[in-house]
Design brief:
elongated; 31 helices
Length: 662
């Protein structure tokens, strides 16, 4: 919205006399759209080659949701996905069918959606006759604050919902002028899709009322407010569902969220100024910002919310002379409201602010700034306008460069965590995640040092203690590892990874009954945790409860059809029951997923040998030795199979190798 003196300029409704021919208008619009999308793709060139980060695997469709039944579950089974955003997860479901685990496809879609959002912003500003529409849209497309939303695959929820949010706004603005039922239905349908992609878009009907007030200076109940009542109802419903999901499924509960009303006002006031600062001075952008201490007893912290209220009151006092500034302030703060601290969202455990929280609000403030620039340029003498144009292009080029540089931070997990630590040295979340990645890479000593550094800054985080426990376990420091797991569970009794890893440690030390209890606790907290089902099956199998073990393996396979251990171990239970053909099928299913899984080859060889399919068994044992040439057991098994064929010289040679290796 423009911060202009005097009443706002209202666009003249299209007529045949005051518009260019339709084909010319379309050609111009298409040109602007192609230009915006092209510059967006160029600015985000670094992201083309980026991979998956952090929680992307919770958004890219899980194996148990990749079928048509999985799509049904996405829509009709809250909890099947991390959040109840069924249209978003349906988009991911479709994208997985297009390019599977190839990160490039997801990144290109996100960039395209962001470019489309910039184009829709341009269309809206033109429809409202806001000066500087193209400058605003280009600044939004190229602003580095948007990088987190565009480069992070999980935040397709931002770009997708923004496209529907802006499309719904455009449709309703048209309905407001033409009063056609078809326009209203289109608008509310697009708004519903926005909500089903991300519920922060619930602020749209309030934003529309602010726009109409800015245009007209008043609001009428029948023509302005009443038609938007269903929109408010839809938005409120979506918001309540999201708040419930954040609390019950995502984990936005506990001491980190125990803020009183006064403290929440402190968070909100400081966040508003933080976001404004990052818009107009976009430096030191980081994935996780430092989480400040909130203290209602510290007078200095009240300066932030008091300043917000003072600005709003001052602008309200001037509303009869200029409505634009107040409208912009209301739109900005109102659009930010879901992320200002009054509603618990999971990332607050790390930080009260994040770049992706202000994706939509950024568009509002950039539109206001561009309008102000455009109005100022109109007052310049003719000779000064080319200079202003060059200056504007310079600003856009600078934003583009910052975005290009910021995009490199999202190349992969390791790059992201190290860049985050460099800019936020006390950011314990980055240390924990980097430590986990180092552990996966086999760099255990580095992992221990990194996780311990994270615990220095965030000592009461269950995931940090769990990761440290796993690292210590891999170093053979069993007692220390068990202590870390128990410390994690003391902090967060329902931490599924702590229960899983503690169960694994207990199982490997022969404490089977205790391990079973922890696996069951993990599954009580997260019933769709396939790995916990597999490991519980292992414990039950070791305790001789074969039928129960088989049931757990089948559940794991239903949740994750690519779980090779579940297939292999289920095959083992079938073999113990004499169900050899079913056992063979399970071993073959495991090998279809991982042809180099030696245990499956070995077990398949055993069952084939039992089935008098000696030649096939020999093939499997030879395959094991290709994978693990030093396996004494594989040489022994191969020798046994060869002796059955009467190939005694070869058999003796294999048995001698087995003896030497043992």
């Amino acid at each position: 919205m423009p911060a202009a003196v005097g009443p706002p300029v209202v666009a003249v409704p299209p007529t045949r006399n005051n518009l260019a021919p339709v084909h010319e208008w379309l050609r111009s619009d298409w040109l602007v759209g192609l230009l915006l999308i092209a510059v967006t793709f160029l600015a985000y060139q670094q992201v083309w080659h980026a991979g998956f980060i952090w929680d992307d695997d919770a958004h890219v469709t899980r194996p148990n949701l990749r079928t048509l039944h999985g799509l049904w579950r996405i829509w009709f089974e809250p909890g099947a996905t991390q959040q109840y955003y069924p249209f978003l997860y349906s988009a991911f479901w479709l994208e997985y069918r297009w390019w599977g685990d190839l990160a490039l496809g997801y990144h290109l879609v996100n960039i395209l959606l962001h470019g489309a959002a910039a184009l829709l912003l341009y269309r809206i500003l033109r429809r409202l006759a806001v000066p500087g529409a193209l400058l605003a849209a280009a600044a939004f497309a190229l602003h580095p604050v948007c990088v987190e939303s565009v480069a992070w695959i999980s935040e397709q929820k931002n770009t997708l919902s923004a496209v529907f949010y802006l499309s719904a706004a455009l449709a309703y603005i048209r309905y407001d002028r033409e009063r056609r039922l078809s326009g209203y239905i289109l608008g509310i349908g697009l708004f519903a899709l926005a909500l089903l992609s991300k519920s922060v878009t619930a602020t749209l009907p309030a934003a529309l009322l602010v726009v109409f007030w800015w245009q007209r200076g008043r609001l009428a109940w029948k023509s302005d407010i009443l038609p938007l009542v269903p929109w408010f109802v839809l938005g409120a419903g979506a918001g309540l569902v999201t708040a419930w999901m954040e609390r019950t499924h995502v984990g936005a509960t506990g001491a980190a969220y125990a803020l009183g009303l006064a403290e929440r006002f402190l968070v909100a006031g400081r966040a508003v100024w933080f976001y404004l600062g990052k818009i107009f001075w976009p430096v030191d952008l980081v994935f996780t910002y430092p989480r400040w201490v909130v203290d209602a007893g510290a007078p200095g912290q009240w300066e932030y919310p008091v300043a917000v209220v003072a600005v709003l009151v001052g602008l309200a006092a001037l509303r009869n002379r200029f409505r634009g500034p107040l409208a912009v302030a209301l739109l900005f703060v109102g659009t930010l409201f879901p992320a200002l601290g009054f509603i618990n969202v999971y990332p607050f455990v790390f930080s009260y602010v994040a770049d992706h929280f202000q994706y939509l609000a950024l568009a509002i403030m950039l539109s206001a700034a561009a309008a102000g620039v455009a109005l100022a340029v109109r007052r310049l003498p003719p000779g000064g306008r080319p200079v202003a144009m060059v200056a504007a292009m310079g600003v856009l080029a600078m934003l583009s460069g910052l975005t290009w540089r910021q995009g490199a931070m999202y190349a992969d997990r390791d790059t992201l965590w190290r860049a985050t630590i460099a800019k936020n040295p006390t950011g314990w979340m980055a240390y924990y995640n980097l430590g986990g990645d180092l552990l996966d890479a086999g760099r255990t000593d580095e992992a221990i040092a990194t996780i311990e550094m994270g615990l220095k800054f965030g000592p009461n985080n269950a995931d940090g203690h769990t990761n440290l426990g796993l690292a210590l376990w891999k170093k053979g420091r069993t007692d220390e590892a068990l202590a870390q797991y128990r410390r994690a569970l003391a902090i967060e009794p329902d931490n599924v990874l702590a229960h899983l890893n503690l169960g694994n440690a207990l199982l490997q030390t022969g404490r089977i009954d205790e391990a079973i209890v922890h696996y069951q606790w993990a599954l009580a907290a997260k019933p769709e945790f396939a790995k916990a089902h597999t490991n519980l099956g292992d414990a039950l199998l070791q305790s001789g409860r074969t039928d129960e073990a088989a049931a757990q393996y089948r559940q794991a396979i239903e949740l994750d059809p690519r779980d090779v251990e579940a297939h292999t171990n289920l095959g083992t239970t079938y073999a113990q029951k004499g169900r050899l053909s079913e056992a063979i099928a399970q071993f073959e299913a495991a090998l279809a997923v991982d042809p180099n899984f030696a245990i499956a080859h070995s077990n398949l060889g055993h069952v084939l040998l039992q089935s008098d399919r000696t030649d096939e068994a020999i093939i499997q044992y030879r395959r094991v030795l290709e994978i693990v040439p030093t396996s004494a057991a594989a040489h022994r098994d191969l020798g046994t199979a060869l002796s059955r064929k009467g190939l005694m010289d070869e058999a003796n040679a294999e048995l001698q190798k087995a003896s030497r290796l043992r």
